[in-house]
User: Which sequence fits this backbone?
């Protein structure tokens, strides 16, 4: 199935499961809408990915524009000023419609990311860099060489030498129709290498959608929303030599989580943490912990208490005390999503319920990011004054 269509069907299914419950509980933290998309000419719309906090400023992407499907890269300065740094589709062969749920990366004064579509000649996505003054360069166009990946939904990460790594949802040499996706490297000189093609072996991981993560030894880790022993998605490891191992297969039939759309993070002991969109005790998604040996522990199942958030799409982030923070796509008092905190023992606290005030955002797809003062920032894909999404701040 076409991945754009598959994503749309998943969103519709989740929206169909949104419930509206009343509760006397108040938001534990205060929220501020820093920007409502669509408020200035040429603004973007529908920010799917997370934010990057760099040198006091926030950076992110939008998937589209109010009048088109191209999207942009934006900046919010430490003083709160919003600026569009670049509009996709501005030059021949440019990428369009960035949908990286991991957001942007920063190195050497430049922003790096992916566009889900666009690029010449196939229109199946690009890797780009962008100066902070708005000059963009396409580093790689997908789909030109046989066996290349197509449709990069995830962002990119760097190794110590400055090479880029990421995934594409489709393409590669796997057995899926249209390909099962790849892990790729783009070197500093702009040369792309396909490090692994998913779906080349029985019960392999397929269809990666989220950012990769390095461990201390230089191995790559990530998730796929399909494949594995039970076809419920996987957590995988890719060694520096390009050898893939499925660390864990999610089981759709046992109360386990399934459909992990987010990337993973490590704690100080080397344990792995992430979220699933579906599954768990109540079928509404989970937060999981995975040991280095592949043993899973469900830290939390969403939907088990009144007004709880449901369907976590974004990654989680740690604070200094080891608590996890993230967002849910739906649920909460108004059915429009939540921001949550989860203690190391698995006790959840709802920090904010979207829809609590006029002009509020709703439906957060990306994860969260801390600033140096401990404030949390994120984006909502929809809502705001104009209905095209928001950038928000949660203040302790």
Assistant:
């Amino acid at each position: 199935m076409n991945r754009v269509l598959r994503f749309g069907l998943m969103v519709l299914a989740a929206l169909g499961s949104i419930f509206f419950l009343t509760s006397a509980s108040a938001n534990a933290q205060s929220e501020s809408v820093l920007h409502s998309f669509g408020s200035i000419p040429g603004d973007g719309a529908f920010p799917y990915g997370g934010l990057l906090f760099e040198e006091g400023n926030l950076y992110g992407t939008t998937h589209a524009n109010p009048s088109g499907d191209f999207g942009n890269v934006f900046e919010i300065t430490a003083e709160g000023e919003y600026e569009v740094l670049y509009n996709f589709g501005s030059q021949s062969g440019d990428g369009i419609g960035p949908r990286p749920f991991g957001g942007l990366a920063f190195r050497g004064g430049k922003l790096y990311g992916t566009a889900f579509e666009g690029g010449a000649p196939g229109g199946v996505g690009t890797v780009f860099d962008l100066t902070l003054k708005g000059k963009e360069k396409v580093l790689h166009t997908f789909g030109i060489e046989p066996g290349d990946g197509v449709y990069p939904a995830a962002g990119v990460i760097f190794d110590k030498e400055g090479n880029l790594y990421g995934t594409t949802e489709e393409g590669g040499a796997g057995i899926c129709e249209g390909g099962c996706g790849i892990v790729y490297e783009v070197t500093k000189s702009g040369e792309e290498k396909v490090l692994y093609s998913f779906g080349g072996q029985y019960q392999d991981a397929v269809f990666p959608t989220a950012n990769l993560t390095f461990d201390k030894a230089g191995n790559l880790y990530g998730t796929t929303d399909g494949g594995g022993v039970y076809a419920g998605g996987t957590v995988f490891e890719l060694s520096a030599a390009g050898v893939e191992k499925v660390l864990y297969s999610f089981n759709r039939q046992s109360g386990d989580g399934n459909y992990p759309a987010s990337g993973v993070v490590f704690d100080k002991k080397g344990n792995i943490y992430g979220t699933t969109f579906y599954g768990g005790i109540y079928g509404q998604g989970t937060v999981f912990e995975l040991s280095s040996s592949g043993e899973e522990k469900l830290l939390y199942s969403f939907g088990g208490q009144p007004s709880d958030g449901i369907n976590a799409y974004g990654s989680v982030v740690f604070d200094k005390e080891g608590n996890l923070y993230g967002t849910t796509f739906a649920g909460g008092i108004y059915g429009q999503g939540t921001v949550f905190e989860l203690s190391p023992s698995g006790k959840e606290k709802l920090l904010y319920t979207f829809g609590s005030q006029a002009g509020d955002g709703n439906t957060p797809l990306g994860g969260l990011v801390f600033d140096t003062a401990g404030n949390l920032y994120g984006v909502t894909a929809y809502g705001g004054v104009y209905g095209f999404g928001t950038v928000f701040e949660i203040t302790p």
The radius of gyration is 19 Å. The first helix runs from residue 3 to 16.
